[in-house]
Amino acid sequence: MKSPGIIILAGLALCALFLEATPANGDDLPHVRCDGHRLTFGWHGGSPHRLDISNLIRAETLDTAHVLAAQRTGDVDYFLVTVSGPSRTSVAGDSNSSGTETNLIWLKLRSWKLLDAQSMPYQSFWNSLEPIGDYHLKGGVLTIRYTNKRENTDYVLRYDLARPDEKIALQRAGDVE
Known about the structure:
The chain has 177 residues and is mainly beta. Helix content is 12%, strand content 47%. It has one domain (24-176). It is built from 2 helices and 12 strands, in the order αββββββββββββα. The strands form 3 sheets. Strands 8, 9, 10, 11 and 12 form a 5-stranded antiparallel beta sheet that branches. It has a 4-stranded antiparallel beta sheet with strand order 4-5-6-7, with no helix packed on it. A 3-stranded antiparallel beta sheet has the order 1-2-3, with no helix packed on it. A hairpin with an 8-residue loop joins strand 11 (153-160) and strand 12.
């Protein structure tokens, strides 16, 4: 007969393996603050971690940032963050150009070192992009819809929480439905 202690330890090990590859729920998401073009992540009582994302955004500076998903697989952390800020002024310095730039950003990190990143704009004064509603999470897939007014085309950004290494997928709305 097997010892109850061994059975309990085996059960805990299986639970740990399952939890290691699952997404965090809303209570487990880190807090994020903006500072210029940097994001500062932090958990309750943990040390803050800063990331410079200036090469991933077109906003003059960041006003807001929200972590939509966070998960760990092995020693790799994945974050899906939406960031927003005012549009940069035009090259000619036109003071009449004011708008918002908003991006969905996918980050892959190991020990807070950036391994890979992807940034997809879905609201942009300069690119005539406008969100359609808010993001949706259904069946473990996060979806953001937006319209490109120049092309008169709607697009869908999708991120599958079960496949974090696949990044953000972009499709024309007509190809999805």
